[in-house]
Amino acid sequence: MRLTLILLLAMLFSSCERLLFQDDMSSIDPFENFDYLWNEVDQKYSYFELKNINWDSIRVEYFSKLYSEMPEDSLFKVLASMLVELRDDHTNLVSPFNISMYNVEFLGPQNFNFRIIKEHYLGSNIQYTGSLVHGFLHNNNIGYIRYASFTNGLSDRDLTYVLDIYKNTNGLILDLRSNGGGSIFNVPQLLARFVDSKQLVGYFRTRNGISHSDFCDKESFYVTPFSGMRYQKPVMILIDRGSYSATTFFALATKAIPNLILVGDTTGGGGGLPNGGQLPNGWTYRFSIGQLLDIHENNYAEEGVPPEIAVNFDWNNMAVDEIIERAVVEINSMTK
Amino acid sequence: MKTINTNRLLFRTVLFFVFVCFLDFHVFPQRQEELKHDSITKHEKPVKPPKYSLSSSGFASFTYRDFATSPLFYRGPSMRFSYGNLRIDERIDQMWFIDFGGGAAFAKIPKSSYLQSYTTAFFLRGELYFHLLYDIKRLSNSFCNVKFGGSGAYFANVRYNESLGNNGIGVDNIFNLMFAMKASKDISRKTEKTRNWLFIEKVLKPKKRTLCFQVNTGILNFNYRPGYAYSYSGELNGNDTNPIGWFFQDYKWAMNGWRLSTKLNFTSYLSNGNARQFAYVWDAVGAPGRDSGFEMATHRLQITILFNTK
């Protein structure tokens, strides 16, 4: 009997986590999910003030579109439309049946067609090394390197191999057009090949309070030179509206490095590092929680980093890439 | 840092002592004569308690919720392995162990009438644990040995949930200094017994066995958890980034929360001095942190081999 009592006590102590935990918050109720998402964005999104967004009035507008028992796809449309008001491609709502996007690349013309480059510029000399596609241009005086996505890993071995091939050229063209970003780790890794001393290239600050203007102290963004193979001659960085997120980070950093010159169109932006989270109904989301600033603390990266040399593609001539042509002219003029 | 919620602390302490008193006056009738007989007098030469090396493995059911990233509970199975040391007799119980394990957890998502969402997290967990308990003579008697003391534990829970993007990796560091109470009951088979199961007759030889129940409750609870934004830009500095610094960038210390764990174990001693132990362990933790809370509970079935080393 006494033993049974001990066992009962043991069971009592061993099953009371429900009493200790807060209530289960899982829910498919549209109002609860709306409130959860709206509050998360309100408390952590980083660009309300820069973009002059009145989040309270947006709540009123979209809350009025909710109703009990509304189908999940209708709720998705309401929540997705609310997030599009942030004008930010780092903001997405992800459900099993759809993903919301702002599509910042449509704000500018398309400026990239890789077939033209492969067919009319690189030809049979094209080489694929890891995540880099490259070849010689202009009588082997200029090297062309295409890095399609910062999502693709960059190894030191591959970078050293590729840069060694073009070490005797007059200049390089690094093509980051339509590079939608990826891992920020790859940004300083690539930049480290083009600097010869540790360089401050920007700042980053992160939201740290419930007020829309609450940010922590800015953190310095440095690039340290790679100890091995580096390239110190002119490098033209090709960008366009499809160059987003990590590519915008890269483009902004080049503003502080004299031998790197941006050619093409303004990047798509995406200067805010996105977070990640989940709603009570299981859908996931992300939005920007920080701000990238240049070395003068200017806050324009979210709207896009402008090029030093603005050039657009001419789609009437499908044998010429005007942006590459302009970059070649620039390298030649710098080496005369 | 936030201060401890004194009311909660007081409540837990009172609850604990009520439990101990309940054991004292209701479950185990006191017999002062036996207490006197059991206690060690000044003239007796103390005998060193036997020492065991522990090796455990077990299955656990794991539940957690990290409010910084999701309001949903994640549940799943995990495997756990431990190695440690135990010194135990009727007067003292001293134990430490290192525990590690891992598993997968699935979000408890409400049923969808459209397309069902699924999200999965993977986790690794490591724990260091120590306790030192002493016999409380006023509470111990021939029926039960009660020990009381303190314990300390630190665990790190590393989580990876791809669907949470840049918030996909989180580390929960929890430190607890706890009150610990252990009640042990000797359920040894003193005489040989014969049992008949169907037509099979089996002779059960005398055997030393114990049944123990231990409660640990957190008194000082610390946690080291991600900051307000959860994700930070440490990776920007690339090859200058210290991996540890990047991992714990803007993590914040907080002294708050609670921890409650219980262990019910049955130990059967072998003739060579070693022993086997079967245990059910329940462990629950709450860490409000500075910005957003974390809750976790595990239910574990564990088998331990105790190697007598002295």
Report the count of strand segments of chain B.
Answer: 13
Rg of chain B, nearest Å = 23 Å
**Largest sheet of chain A at a glance?**
7 strands, mixed
Structural class of chain B: mainly beta
Tell me the CATH superfamily of chain B: OPCA outer membrane adhesin/invasin
Q: Order of SSEs of chain B, N→C?
A: HHEEEEEEEEEHEEEE
Number of helices of chain B: 3
Rg of chain A computed from alpha carbons, rounded to a whole number of angstroms: 25 Å
Q: How many strand elements of chain A?
A: 13
- Please report which band the strand proportion of chain A falls in: under 5%, 5-15%, 15-25%, 25-35%, 35-45% or over 45%: 15-25%
Task: Give me the side-by-side strand order of the main sheet of chain B.
Answer: 1-2-3-4-5-6-9-11-12-13
For this structure, the CATH topology of the domain at 107-195 and 230-269 and 304-335 in chain A is 2-enoyl-CoA Hydratase, Chain A, domain 1
Strand order of the largest sheet of chain A: 2-3-4-5-8-9-13
Helix % of chain A is 25-40%
CATH class of chain B: Mainly Beta
Low-confidence stretches of chain B: 1-6, 20-41
Structural class of chain A: alpha/beta
Walk me through this protein's architecture:
The complex is a heterodimer of chains A (336) and B (310). Chain A has helices at residues 2-13, 17-20, 30-44, 55-63, 72-84, 114-122, 156-165, 186-191, 246-254, 322-335; strands spanning 92-94, 127-129, 132-137, 142-147, 171-175, 199-206, 219-223, 235-239, 260-264, 277-278, 284-286, 290-293, 309-310. In chain A, helix 4 (55-63) packs antiparallel against helix 5. Chain A has a domain at 107-195 and 230-269 and 304-335: 2-enoyl-CoA Hydratase, Chain A, domain 1 (Alpha-Beta Complex), CATH 3.90.226. In chain A, 30% of the residues lie in helices and 17% in strands. The longest helix of chain A is centred in the N-terminal third of the chain and has 15 residues, at 30-44. By secondary structure, chain A is α/β, with parallel strands linked by helices. In chain A, the strands form 3 sheets. Chain A has a 7-stranded mixed β-sheet, with helices on both faces. A 3-stranded antiparallel β-sheet of chain A has the order 1-11-10, covered by helices on one side. A 3-stranded antiparallel β-sheet of chain A has the order 7-6-12. Chain B has 310 residues and is mainly beta. In chain B, the strands form 2 sheets. In chain B, strands 1-2-3-4-5-6-9-11-12-13 form a 10-stranded antiparallel beta barrel. In chain B, strands 7-8 form a two-stranded antiparallel ribbon. Chain B is globular and about 70 Å long.
